């Protein structure tokens, strides 16, 4: 097993701007643990480069950030990176976390069927809210943190050596913790985010070998 971690970080709109910066936490952790990091950021998050580097370096854990659909995950400027019936076999023998909308519905199951060890994603839209006034400093956005800290917990847990099922449970627990925190302060304007946090929690799926570790 290669201790190699590949991450895609497109950055071309508000959503990917936030994911770009928040996913740096996973990169920093991997480097502290001596794990080799392959960071396909911005324009490098394209199908040609992803295909080439996966075949050459054979990363064991892949963290895909970007927009998606039930059958695909995209990279920079919405270029399709992985698509069912096309190249999901690129994820064979890999642990995959896709922070994207809907890919856990069809692409995830199809990938596992094609040999992906484990696939964590979302079987419907992944929703997060952010503060327009914090766009220039996304890591200081306490609203976005409610959503992106639990979602990033998947990658953090996997990089720490947790079993897939435990990384998933920790993410679920953190979603639940944030929901509970908002429920206890219903007078807070932030309580409107409860339904979105619950949505993400309910639509996060864990597929494949749940005992696998990185």
Can you walk me through this structure?
- By secondary structure, the chain is an alpha/beta fold.
- It is globular and about 55 Å long.
- The mean pLDDT is 96.
- The strands form 2 sheets. It has a 6-stranded mixed beta sheet, sandwiched between helices.
- 39% of the residues lie in helices and 19% in strands.
- α2 (24-32) runs parallel beside α5, α5 (142-159) runs antiparallel to α6 (164-183) and α6 (164-183) packs antiparallel against α7 (194-203).
Compact description:
The protein has one domain (4-208): Rossmann fold, CATH 3.40.50.
Q: Give the name of the CATH architecture.
A: 3-Layer(aba) Sandwich
Residues in helix, %: 25-40%
CATH top-level class: Alpha Beta
Average pLDDT works out at 96
Which fold does the CATH topology refer to? Rossmann fold
Q: Into how many domains do the coordinates divide? A: 1
Relative strand content: 15-25%
Order of helices and strands: EHHEHEEEEEHEHHHE
Shape descriptor reads globular
Structural class: alpha/beta
How many helix segments? 7
- How many strands, what sense, and barrel or not for the largest sheet? 6 strands, mixed
How many strands appear in the DSSP assignment?
9
**Cα distance spanning the termini:** 8 Å
Uncertain spans: none
The radius of gyration is 16 Å
Query: Strand order, biggest sheet?
Result: 2-1-3-7-8-9
Say what oligomer this is. Answer: single chain
């Amino acid at each position: 097993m290669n201790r190699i971690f590949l991450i895609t970080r497109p950055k071309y709109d508000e959503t990917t701007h936030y994911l770009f910066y928040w996913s740096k936490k996973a990169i920093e952790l991997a480097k502290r643990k001596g794990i080799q990091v392959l960071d396909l950021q911005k324009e490098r998050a394209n199908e040609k480069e992803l295909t080439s580097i996966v075949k050459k370096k054979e990363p064991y854990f892949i963290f895909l950030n970007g927009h998606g659909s039930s059958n695909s995950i995209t990279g920079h400027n919405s270029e399709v990176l992985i698509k069912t019936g096309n190249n999901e076999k690129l994820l064979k023998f890999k642990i995959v976390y896709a922070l994207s909308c809907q890919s856990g519905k069809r692409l995830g199951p199809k990938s596992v069927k094609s040999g992906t060890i484990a696939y964590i994603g979302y079987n419907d839209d992944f929703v997060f809210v952010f503060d327009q006034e914090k766009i220039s400093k996304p890591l200081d956005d306490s609203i976005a943190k409610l959503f992106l800290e639990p979602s990033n917990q998947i990658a953090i847990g996997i990089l720490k050596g947790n079993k897939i099922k435990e990384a998933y449970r920790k993410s679920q627990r953190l979603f639940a913790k944030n929901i509970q925190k908002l429920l206890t302060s219903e007078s807070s304007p932030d309580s409107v985010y409860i339904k979105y946090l619950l949505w993400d929690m309910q639509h996060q799926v864990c597929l494949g070998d749940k005992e696998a570790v990185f």
